[in-house]
Amino acid sequence: MSSSESGRQFINQPRQVVGEALEGCARLRHPDGSGVRLSDPASGMRLVVRDDWARDQVALISGGGSGHEPAHAGFVGAGMLTAAVCGELFASPTVDAVLAAIREVTGEAGALLIVKNYTGDRLNFGLAAERARQEGFKVEMVIVADDVALPDNPQPRGLAGTLLVHKVTGALAARGAGLKEITAVARRVADSCSTLGVAFNVGRHPGKPREQRAPELGLGIHGEPGAMALELGSDSDTHGVHAVMDTVVTALVQGHSRKDVGGDLPASGHLLLINDLGGCSALERSLLLEEALTHPSLQALGIHAVVGPQPLMTSLDMHGFSLTLLPLDSLLEEALSASCAPVAWPGVQPVTPLAHFSPSQDAVRTASDEASDARRAQAKADCQERAARGVKSRAGLPGDPQVEQRLRAALEILLASEADLDRLDAISGDGDTGSTFANGARAVIEALEDCELACGDSGELMTTIGKQLAHGMGGSSGVLLSTLFTAAATRWKEQSDAHGQAPLGQRWHDALSHGVARMQHYGGASRGDRSLLDALLPALEALQASVQSEKQVSVQGYQSASPAESRQEIRAGRVDWAAMARAARQGADATAEMAKARAGRSAYVPSAHLVGNSDPGAEAVARVFEALADAAEEAAG
C-alpha cells in the first residue's frame, strides 16, 4: 500500500494501477448479462470492448487518459459505448491503440470516435481515423468542447458533456440509426452543451503528494489552471456552499448563453448533469443538488431533468464538482432516457416540486383516550391553580404522597450522583453517564413540578416518565429506559383490564420484567454484559422473592388507579425495598470484577480499564434502589 505526504492510498504500484483497476471492473457483468473484454496486457494497449458486440450497428469509440473513472471504460456496454481506449493517467492513448480498437469493433455500419478537445486526444484519435479510412473503414469523429470557463479560449476543453454525447449516440446506435444521422446528432449535442466546474484542490496522483492549490473556478480535469481563484472564508457552512454555487451557476449560464445552438436558447427544457470530480461525499452531492435546483438562474432556464449527482467524469480524487447544461428536445429526451447496460450511468431523473408533510406526533386516539385527556387536563389546571395560591396538595391529579416521596428520592440521588457517575464513566466511556441520568431526572422533576405526573396511577405514571426520558434524557440510556417504562406501563394497563387482578407486588414484578425484556430486545444486552442490567435484574429477582414469600397476604377490592395503592402495598409487606437495594448493590459491585464488557462503549475498552471499576449504569441503578429503600423505611417508621 502506497503512502504519501497527504495520506495513504489503496494501490500497489503506481505504474500498475490503471491495468489492475480495469481488470477488476472487467470481472463483473452488467445486469443484462453482458460484460466486457480487455486487450492482452502484452500488447501494451488498454482496450475495453463489449463482449456481446456483433458489428451490425454503428460502433461508438471514445477514451483518453485514465484518472477520470468511471469515464470512459465504465460506460462501455449496450446503449452506450462499444469500446474505450485508455491511456496512462492523464495521458492520451497511442494512435496504434485507437486504430486497434477501430479494427476490433467496426463493421459495415462504420464507427464514430467521440473525442474530448485536448491536443493529445485530437491528434492520436484523428490520425487513427485517417489510417482507418485508408484501410477502408467508415469512420467519423466528433470533438466535444463543452467547457465555458474561458470565454475567449479558441480551444475549449472537453469535459463531462462528453458523457451526454455517449448516451445520446448510444441510444441512436442501439435502434439502428446510420453513421451520418448519429454523427449529426452527436455534433449538435457537443455544440449545445456547456460545462463549468469548481474545485477546492487538484487530484492526487498515486504515490505522490497532493499539489497545494487555492480553490479555483474552471479548474481542468487534468489539474489545468482555472479561470480564477476563489476567495473563500474559513467556515464551510451552507452559506459558503450557496456562495460557491452562485458563482458557478452565474458563470455557467453566461457561457451557455453565448453558444450558437440554432437561435435563442429555449426558456425551458434543459437537462442538468451534476458531476462529482472525485472527492465529494454523498452528503455533499445531495446538498449541491439542492443548491443547484433552487438557484434562480437555473430555475429560469427550466431544469426538467437531472443526471447525477454522481462521480461520472472525475479527476482522480479532486474535491470539486461540475455542472453541465443541455437544451432538450423530444429526440434528446428519448435518447437520454433509453435504457442502457453500464451501471456507471445513473439514469435521467425528472425534477419534481418539493413536497412536505407534517408527521403525526400523537398515537391514534380513542374516545376513552379523549375522555381521559380531558380529565387529566382539568386536574392539571386545578393543581396549578392551587399551587398558585400556595396550596401544596396535588389532589387534583391521582396522587399518592408516599409514591411522590420515593420518586423524589430517586430523582434527587441521580442529581447528587452526577459528578461521581461521570468520573466513573470517564474510565471506560466518554464520561457522560452522570450528566445523562441527571438530565433524565431533571426532565421528570420538571413534569412533577408542572403537575403532569399522576403518582396515584401507576400505569399513567410510568407512561409519563417514559415520555419524559425519551425527550429529556438523551443518549442510548434515555431510549432504553424510556422503552422500559413505556412497555411496563402497557403491561400494567393490560393487567388492569384483565378479569381478576393479580396481587399488587406480582403486578409490579410482571410489568417491570416485561419492560426490561423489551429493553433487552431492542438494546441487545444481557446479564453479565457489564451494564445497568447487572443491577436491575437482581433487584427484580428480589422483588419476585418477596412476592412469593407473601403469597398468603391478600388485599381485596382495590382499584389499579387508587391513591391508596402504594399504602396497601406497604401494609401487605409485598415489596421488600431493602432486599431489592441489597441485590442491586451486589450486582453493581460485581461489575467491577468483569474484565470484558459486551454492550455499550465499554465493549471497546481494554480490560485493564474495567477491572476494579463498577459499570456507571449499574451504579446509578443501585443508588436509585438504595434511595427507594431509605424512603420506604422513613415512610414506614
Fold and architecture overview:
By secondary structure, this protein is an alpha/beta fold. 46% of the residues lie in helices and 12% in strands. α12 runs antiparallel to α13 (433-449). The chain is elongated and about 110 Å long. Mean pLDDT is 86; it is low at 1-6, 391-396 and 552-573.
Total strand segments? 15
Using only CA atoms, what is the Rg? 36 Å
SS class: alpha/beta
Largest sheet report: 7 strands, mixed
How many H/I helical runs? Answer: 20
Shape: elongated
Topology:
Blueprint: E1 2-4, E2 7-9, H1 17-26, E3 36-38, E4 47-50, E5 59-66, E6 83-89, H2 95-105, E7 111-116, H3 119-134, E8 139-144, H4 161-174, H5 179-192, E9 194-199, E10 216-217, E11 228-229, H6 238-257, E12 270-276, H7 282-293, H8 296-301, E13 303-311, E14 320-327, H9 330-337, E15 348-350, H10 367-388, H11 401-416, H12 418-428, H13 433-449, H14 458-472, H15 475-497, H16 504-523, H17 533-549, H18 565-572, H19 577-590, H20 616-636
Parallel strand pairs: 5-6, 5-7, 7-8, 12-13
Antiparallel strand pairs: 1-2, 3-4, 4-6, 9-10, 9-14, 10-11, 12-14, 13-15
Helix pairs in contact: 2-3, 4-5, 6-7, 11-13, 11-20, 12-13, 12-20, 13-14, 14-15, 15-16, 16-17, 17-19, 17-20, 19-20
